[in-house]
Amino acid sequence: MNQSRGNPPVVAPSDWGRHGGATPLQMFTKLLVESGDLKLKNKHRLILSRRQTIRGILATTAFGVSSRLWTGCTPNETPNNKTGSSPSGGGKTISMGFIYVGPKDDYGYNQAHAEGKAGVSKLPWVKSVEEANIPETTAVQETMRNMINQDGVTVIFPTSFGYFDPHILKVAQEYPDIQFFHCGGLYQEGKHPKNIASYFGYIDEAEYVAGIVAAHTSKTGKLGFIAAKAIPQVLRNINSFTLGARSVNPKITTQVIFTGDWSLPIKEAEAANSMVDQGIDVLTCHVDSPKVVVETAEKRGVFSSGFHSNQSVLAPKGFLTGAEWDWTTVYSKFAEMVRDGKNVKDGTIPHIIRGGFKEGFCKLSPYGSAVSDKAKKAAEAAKAKFMDGSMVIYQGEIKDNTGKVIIPKGKEYKQQDIELEKMSWLVEGVLGSTK
Fold first, then answer.
1. Can you give the pTM of this predicted structure?
2. Are residue 258 and residue 388 in the same domain, yes or no?
3. pLDDT of residue 427 exceeding 90
4. What is the DSSP string of 76-114?
5. Which end of the chain is more exposed for a tag (fewer CB within 10 A), N or C?
């Protein structure tokens, strides 16, 4: 297995060892009174120091519009119950925190993580707290500190790519006994704190299968891919989707448009409409929220393929399938490891963890009504090969869209190969440029 210098081996999961009507400030004040930090002057008046006031504001606003829901194991659980005992009456309770850069109902990246949080929270020995709409600024540092100091979490999942440097790095140094799991691939052995781990998935496997479905369904032989940025993870999804499609129809093309950022709804709509005007009849994307792209496709009467989470409800006629994350499985495995006494700091939990279909990192959205039996059969056959390990997406000969041979005949890159993490090219059949 090829590895980049300074990085530890990539390890698959199979190898892993309401508050009611009260306002946030009222809740914070109540916590201070109960803890003895705040003294009542009389029955009706209380005195807050300047530091206590600032702490309250930071804790309840986190520098922006955010939402926090404490999820315990019984309906009446509250953040004040931090005893560490299991609500079910025995065993160790694991307290986990989740942070999202956007809303939990974006039909995309953040919703996928929120669904994973909801899934792991069903385990009777897991407590979880979450905050949404936290920007990639010092605001996320305060959110992490508040989760640790106020909510008692010992495991934190800051899910946005831009949270890592400097924010996770700084807070991880401040709290060496807390475990930080970042969604991305940025951890470097010997450079970053040992209480940090990195996790991500080979969702391009699901993109490859979605490409097969798209090719079987398209009438024009023209597919469209709206993407945020030309970074390796995005390019890999574009290329895998196209290679899947071209395994069915070698002449099919994928038009790509880069919007320039993760959430630009107007540009996404403009790109989608432009593609439909050019005869493209299947749209997909890699942006934070596929909602605009999927809804635009449905309005224009063309097909769509989803990403991150299940968008089928947005396009009952034209939705085909989609590449989804399965964070419930991933987060449940992390929780089980922590419960069993394993820790990223001592190496019993790997610092870099990856996986695809087989390891439960990703899944395929349910097929839409427009998908033929033939397309389903071909898609399931490809998925089965991923499950048994016999499918290799990147095997030569593969050319880029300028005609240059990127992977020569007889050579192949398997999913864990570090070369795929450096991808900077678009495969033959893709119309567009990374520049």
1. 0.80
2. yes
3. yes
4. T--TT--S-B-TTSSSBPEEEEEE-SS-TTSSSHHHHHH
5. C
